[in-house]
Design a protein that fits this description.
The complex is a heterodimer of chains A (about 325) and B (about 325).
Chain A (H helix, E strand, L loop, with lengths): L3 E16 L3 E16 L3 E5 L6 H8 L7 E6 L2 E2 L6 H4 L2 E4 L13 H11 L6 H14 L16 H13 L5 E5 L7 H18 L2 E6 L2 H7 L2 E6 L2 E7 H6 L4 H9 L41 H5 L5 E4 L2 E3 L8
Parallel strand pairs in A: 3-8, 3-9, 6-7, 7-8
Antiparallel strand pairs in A: 1-2, 1-4, 4-5, 9-10, 10-12, 11-12
Chain B lengths: L3 E14 L2 E14 L3 E5 L6 H6 L9 E10 L2 E2 L5 H7 L4 E4 L3 H4 L6 H12 L4 H14 L5 H5 L8 H13 L5 E5 L7 H18 L2 E6 L2 H7 L2 E6 L2 E7 H6 L4 H9 L39 H5 L4 E5 L2 E4 L1 H8 L1
Parallel strand pairs in B: 3-8, 3-9, 6-7, 7-8
Antiparallel strand pairs in B: 1-2, 1-4, 4-5, 9-10, 10-12, 11-12
The chains are: A alpha/beta (about 325), B alpha/beta (about 325).
Chain lengths: ~325, ~325
């Protein structure tokens, strides 16, 4: 049990929305989510846009204060702790490498900044050596250190962002859609780099993406989110071979497999409609409006996440029936 | 059914910037038959969008068609004037852009934007046009159409807006629809819905489609032919099955290997293509892919390979294949 690096219990994050003078409604971006991430593993989080996966990642790092619930880091409750010392342990790589680098700083200073903040270098020389070694770890040469972010392509910028995250030698990195803005050939480079860094340093990742095939590739365990809730959680192999929740099933059938020849004949499980607004999510099971198996019980009761096979959790009322 | 709706020959498009000439499209020839779905794949900057915009005469300054001709449905696009082009845009050829949020006018209701296209290209009265608009929105799978017509773009989600874009594009039953990364910005489940919709409409209207994408799964799903572009050239062209299961060019193979696959064993290493895409300002002398190619030979750096026909409708430009034929 001591293997858990990060654990969250009943985490909630609500964003208030003013409606008129007195009425306030809430967007329940993350609603009662519990999960843990083991040391050294990659936990994947998939879901469509607006399902709260990014908010979950940010709340976990306390980049926004949770509305309710607890966050544990190595067994310590950090929900109300000042984050100063923990920032050194937990880092984040954002989606858009164009927006997450200061255009007026050189790469050298960008990577040097966290080293200065946490006073990791004792001398200027040591600082320089650290920066050079970080750059080489992400596959950039030293000449690039004096350049500004605009001189780099998207893939190279993402490398700089990763080098910056690695500068403080963290145990845990939240990767929020780190490759979705990159070209396929560059995506593969960055993903391989993430895996190599994990092997070398034993870092734990929370890998957030909307792309199931990438998440399946990199993750050990995967959680599927829908409208602020986890609907299915298991290791990535069984998620892809035997998904149980109807939402996961339709997500999997929506992505088309490139290497199976019988593609065109395959009947896909198409979902009707759009994601409902998180301002007024459907009562009961949030997925029921798009679900083909909807029943009365789905309208009245919120399904709990329950273990229906070993280490395979699903939130659905009709789990046993199909 | 086998007549060519689109015939592009030796097309070259350049952008004349302060830094120098950028050859965005370099000697492309393409034919598209009636009712065919062609996919154009390539990374960003490979010229796939520019090539297809030229079909609508949408190349803006400082871009220019330097050479070649585009015949579309008995029109010669490159010699047509602005007025003539406006007549066929939206009527015979339409385009769906990548980002629906920025391609609709936020100040006009969805209805007026739809009706505008219909009135412009047909002799319909406003009332008839409105009826047609209602029909179109129904066709793309929208509910409460009458209410929707009065709504503004901000009231729609991304998937819904993309449906509106498709409805506008289909308003005059074009012969050719260009979908420029039309599903890239959408979620997986919505993407599947939109692709299904395009296929249905294609069958119904016998329309041709050009799908521009960087996503092989989209190609596998709806395209019959695929053109792989790199640095402004078509480096491989063929039937979808040939490209996906029997690729001949090193770049196509590399792209397929770099795509994470849901069926593959977990934690199997992806094989990335090393290096980064070419700088079009200073393109390499020989094959543009040579600096990134693992099997690069001396000749690859010196001169550009010619197109090699492998089988019917499958050709590629690579020196490796020439060598096989010599020995």
């Amino acid at each position: 049990m001591d293997n858990k690096l990060i654990e969250i219990k009943n985490l909630k994050k609500y964003f208030p929305v003013r409606e008129g003078i007195f009425a306030t409604n809430y967007i329940k971006a993350v609603d009662d989510v519990s999960l843990y991430i083991n040391k050294g593993e990659t936990f994947g989080l998939v879901g469509e846009s607006g399902c709260g996966k990014t908010t979950l990642g940010r709340t976990l790092l306390k980049l926004c204060q949770p509305t309710d619930g607890q966050i544990f880091y190595k067994g310590e409750d950090i929900t109300f702790q000042p984050m100063g010392q923990y920032r050194k342990k937990m880092q984040i790589v954002f989606q858009n490498p164009y927006a997450s680098l200061n255009p007026r700083m050189t790469v050298y200073d960008i990577i040097g900044e966290p080293i200065d903040i946490h006073r990791l270098a004792t001398s200027k020389r040591q600082r320089k050596e650290m920066i050079i070694s970080l750059l080489s770890q992400v596959g950039l040469n030293y000449e690039s250190a004096m350049a500004y972010p605009h001189e780099f392509s998207g893939g190279q910028r993402q490398r700089i962002v990763i080098a910056r995250a690695l500068a403080v030698e963290p145990d845990f990195i939240v990767c929020d859609e780190p490759v979705s803005s990159l070209d396929v050939s560059i995506q593969a480079q960055i993903i391989n780099m993430f895996e190599r860094i994990q092997e070398e340093r034993g870092i734990t990742y929370l890998f957030i993406s909307h792309d199931l095939s990438i998440v399946s590739h990199i993750s050990d365990r995967v959680g599927v989110m829908y409208l602020g809730k986890i609907v299915e959680l298991t290791d990535s192999k069984s998620l892809y071979s035997s998904p149980i929740h109807p939402y996961t099933q339709s997500l999997l059938s929506a992505i088309i497999k490139v290497d199976s020849k019988d593609n065109k004949g395959n009947k896909r499980l198409l979902l009707k409609g759009d994601i409902p607004s998180p301002l007024n999510p459907p009562s009961g099971c949030r997925f029921r409006t798009r679900c083909v198996y909807e029943k009365d019980i789905c309208i009245d009761q919120v399904p709990e996440l329950q273990e229906c096979r070993k280490e395979h959790f699903v939130a659905c009322h009709r789990v046993g029936e199909f | 059914m086998n007549s060519c709706i689109l015939d592009i020959r030796d097309l070259e498009i350049s952008f004349f910037t302060q830094a120098g000439e950028i050859k965005a499209v370099n000697n492309i020839s393409l034919q598209l038959k009636d009712g065919e779905v062609l996919g154009i794949v390539g990374e960003s900057g490979s010229g796939k969008s520019v090539a297809s915009y030229s079909i609508m005469g949408l190349i803006a300054e400082p871009g220019k068609i330097v050479n070649g001709n585009i015949r579309f449905n008995n029109h010669t696009i490159e010699t047509m004037g602005k007025k003539e082009l406006q007549k066929i845009r939206g009527k015979e050829v339409s385009i769906v852009f990548q980002d629906p949020n920025t391609s609709l006018n936020p100040l006009l209701s969805i209805g007026s934007q739809l009706i505008e296209v219909i009135i412009r290209h047909t002799n319909k009265t406003k009332k008839e046009a409105k009826e047609r608009a209602v029909e179109l929105l129904g066709l793309v799978g929208m509910n409460e159409v009458d209410k929707r017509l009065k709504q503004y773009p901000y009231e729609f989600s991304g998937g819904m807006l993309q449906r509106v874009m498709i409805a506008i594009a289909l308003a005059c039953e074009p012969k050719l629809l260009i979908a420029d990364e039309a599903t890239t910005a959408l979620d997986a489940t919505i993407q599947a819905q939109i692709l299904e919709l395009l296929l249905q409409i294609k069958k119904k209207n016998s329309m041709s489609i050009i799908m521009i994408t960087h996503d092989f799964s989209v190609i596998a799903n709806i395209c019959e032919k695929v053109a792989v572009m790199y640095a402004g050239r078509i480096i491989e062209y063929g039937k979808t099955e040939d490209i996906l299961y029997n690729p001949k060019h090193q770049y196509t193979m590399g792209l397929l290997k770099a795509t994470p696959n849901i069926n593959s064993h977990i934690h199997e290493k992806l094989v990335p293509i090393k290096g980064s895409p070419v700088d079009l300002l200073n393109p390499p002398l020989g094959c543009p892919f040579a600096p990134r190619c693992e099997k690069c030979m001396k000749i690859c750096l010196r001169s550009m390979p010619k197109n090699k026909v492998i089988s019917d409708d499958h050709y590629t430009a690579c020196w490796l294949l020439e060598k096989k034929l010599w020995s």
